[in-house]
Amino acid sequence: MKTIPDNWSKLPFAYYPTNYNVRCYYRDGKWGELEISSSEQIVIHMSASSLHYGQESFEGLKAFCGQDGKIRIFRWQNNWERMNFSARGILMPEVPKEIFEQAVKDVVRLNREFIPPYGTGASLYIRPLLIGTGARLGVAPADEFLFMIFVAPVGPYFPTGFKAVDVKLVRDTDRAATLGTGQYKVGGNYAASLASGQKAHEEGFKMVLYLDAKEKKYIDECGPANFFGIKGNSYVTPNSSSILQSITNLSLCTLAEELRLKVERRKVPVEELSDFTEAGACGTAAVITPIRSISDKEKGKIYTYGNEPGEWSVKLYKKLQAIQLGDEKDKYGWVTLL
Ligand code: PLP
Ligand code: COI
């Protein structure tokens, strides 16, 4: 049995071994039975399509422990839908809803002692994975696949927590092509972002802001998160064919409307960065990461948004967390109680 963390509130966002994971194999054109494993290893063919040709997708969602001691899983249905959207995009079989649901619930239940207690700021990160395991040498989809889920107790994506960070706008790298795989949650997009991410980190930035690959005119993705800005009474977020449809962003749009902000999902020209009073990155891991500055070195510009998280970022962050933790009524039906 693996060790339970002794300091929940100091957990980083990192892999942490837990007791069990769940797996389901697709062979001969059909999904098998869900299996429980306590091994951290998987055995796959050296010529598996996922290893050579990137035929794989993953997801990220979280479970929270409320003040009432109940476990809440946030919007797993959306992650299931998005995983199958990615599957269709790169020719993998879709995972049936019953298998995905059972897998999420089983893996959380089986690792119950690893769910961070209420008030620690930590949560249980749930990582579903769908990979081509069938051997291929020519570029072609596999005929065998593995769907699995493991979990890890995690703290905030940035160790500083809900603190404003500095972001680097890059013009020399694209994360995804305009009509490429950016809207799918596939490993290749992340591989494409590693070098620019590392370079930005070495220069003291926490995240990279990418522009649209075709015209380099519009804001695209913000590292492993969607971008949003506050302008007057509007919550503005990019509409693009090369970004992930963030479930956090979707939730924030709903909450922004509830807070009487106007939601604008549209192309966001780079110049508009100077109109925002607040900017942020949002995602399951990032939650809301407020942005302090965006440096566009090539154009010699720095856009600044203040050292502290802005008023609307704070309101949205608190509201989202309150729903996830069960402190506020789940009126949109986002939470599944275990
Ligand atoms: N964009 C990218 C590239 C991501 O990796 C993520 C993380 O999942 C997001 C956006 C945010 O999506 P979500 O809010 O569904 O986690
Ligand atoms: C998430 O927010 O769940 C993600 O998948 C981001 C991840 C790449 C750390």
Name its key features.
single chain, 338 residues, alpha+beta, D-amino Acid Aminotransferase, Chain A, domain 1, D-amino Acid Aminotransferase, Chain A, domain 2, 2 domains, 9-stranded antiparallel β-sheet, 6-stranded mixed barrel, 18 strands, binds pyridoxal-5'-phosphate, binds 2-OXO-4-methylpentanoic acid
What's a concise summary of this model?
With 338 residues, the chain is α+β, with helices and mostly antiparallel strands. The chain is built from six helices and 18 strands. 22% of the residues lie in helices and 29% in strands.
Helix and strand topology:
Layout: E1 21-27, E2 30-31, E3 35-37, H1 49-53, E4 56-58, E5 61-65, E6 71-74, H2 76-89, H3 97-110, E7 123-132, E8 145-154, E9 165-169, H4 187-202, E10 207-211, E11 219-222, E12 225-231, E13 234-238, H5 247-258, E14 262-266, E15 278-283, E16 287-296, E17 301-304, H6 311-325, E18 335-337
Parallel strand pairs: 9-10, 9-16, 13-14
Antiparallel strand pairs: 1-2, 1-3, 1-8, 4-7, 5-6, 5-7, 6-18, 7-8, 10-11, 11-12, 12-13, 12-15, 15-16, 16-17
Helix pairs in contact: 5-6
The chain binds pyridoxal-5'-phosphate (PLP) and 2-OXO-4-methylpentanoic acid (COI).
